[in-house]
Amino acid sequence: MPTEAILSTARQFLGVDPTVPITLEPIKRGASGRTIVRVKSPVHETFIGIHWTEEREDNEQFIPVGNFLRQAKLRVPEIIHERARYRVALVEDLGDVDLLSLKDRPFAERLPLYRSAFEQVDKLFYAKTPKDFHLMPPFDAALYRGEQEYFFEYLVEGFLGLDATALRKNPVFSETAEKLGTVARHLVHRDFQSQNLMIKDGRVWLIDFQGLRRGRQEYDLASLVFDPYMDHTADQREALLELWEDIADERPEPTLFRQCAAQRLMQALGAYGNIVINRGDDWYRPHIATAARLLGEVTAGTPLESPLAPVLAAIR
Predict the structure, then answer these.
(1) Which of 34, 72, 83, 275 could be a cystine partner for 127, CB 3.0 to 4.6 Å?
(2) Which of 59, 92, 125 is the C-terminal boundary of a domain?
């Protein structure tokens, strides 16, 4: 059992016998085949226990990627103890406040946190991995195409009950994947959104970074600017791009940025459909409509608009 593995690892780390009470407090976060708990005991400050399954290949990357990012001076929780053999890691407790939990705060109040988040993306841009460091496969055309297939299977067919055959055969999707997949030089978080940005001491810390790989920096930027959980207005998105320009001295190229946003939103919609239908988690259901509306905005006037129109209409 995952909790038993975490508990035994916690006792090993703390060096205590079974008479010392240890409490495991569940933390619900995402749907990546992991069990995450807050570990409380009378002999140590709280920390987070994580157990992962083999459901996703990138889960195995959590420990090496976490250690690398910390060495690269990015703000990530410290891995204080690990038993990779049992798929367990104990990590620093960053608290319960993530960017999503601050959604109802005034946008101007949240802007410094977005600056903090973007500074981490900018720092990731310059981070250098050791030559023998293993990363997940890069964002190439096949991976982008895989994200599209995820969208076709779980959102179009699974959630909406539509036939996705025409979409799969439409060359505009494969052409988008080919164009985006021509460059994969920079490190990207891959799930750079409000739930994965923790707030501690007034600064943003990154979590759920196990999917780190090479790709387009614009994908991470689009993931946050067009985050369906936050549902930024057009003016807010413009403010975020101005903030990024202030940090990086340039804006993402508009067409490329919109393509990355469309790709990311299709991936998110596939994930939401999968979770709602196959895992019965209705928390994600309202975000389907939001992500669909955003997808309609970023594809308006592009070759993706026409083939996606029936899908987006069905969601509305």
Answers:
(1) 72
(2) 92
